[in-house]
Amino acid sequence: MAYIVGLTGGIGSGKSTIAVLFVELGVKIIDADIVAREVVAKGTPLLAEIVNHFGEQILTEQKELDRAKLRQIVFNDPKQKEWLNQLLHPAIRQEMLNQLHQNNDDYVIWVVPLLIENNLTEFCDRVLVIDVLPEIQLSRALARDKSNIETIKNIMAAQVSREKRLSYADDIIENNLPLAQNFSNIKEQVLELHQKYIALALQKNK
Fold this sequence. Notes:
Pathway: Cofactor biosynthesis; coenzyme A biosynthesis; CoA from (R)-pantothenate: step 5/5. With about 210 residues, this protein is α/β, with parallel strands linked by helices. Helix content is about 55%, strand content about 10%.
């Protein structure tokens, strides 16, 4: 099995952007958000259960899950959020672990927003945290998503604090500056980490 690097950070921290830089170096990525979409894709049993619970209102015209609408419902209603988590988390977790176990590369980047919250660090050899200030998280998430400020604040409140997240970090990439301004610096850090992870993976698999 590959050496597992858990990549995490709060909403709006730039996890996906930084994960892409690892992909460009030929690294395999297992992304919790992608797996989460796969398990509720059109025609899946889990999507049928969600529609049965929330009604057709949470579907798009193409009969796919309207994630923005669902998120707005659950992050403003703790009971509904709990119901959805109990349905989806076991399926997402199992699928991610299957993909991790099937990977035989030197190392794999496992992108999980709730890596710490869902006690998944135990499966990681190392944890990489993408760190940003809370006010930057909020402004980026508002600019990117179609959610309102209350929903974004509720999502942030449901995640661990910045301090707690950093306490789990073996490696940190600070991503407060706009990417256009800081791209070469971030890219350099990713390359350095890539070389470090290859060395650590070889050491582990000796």
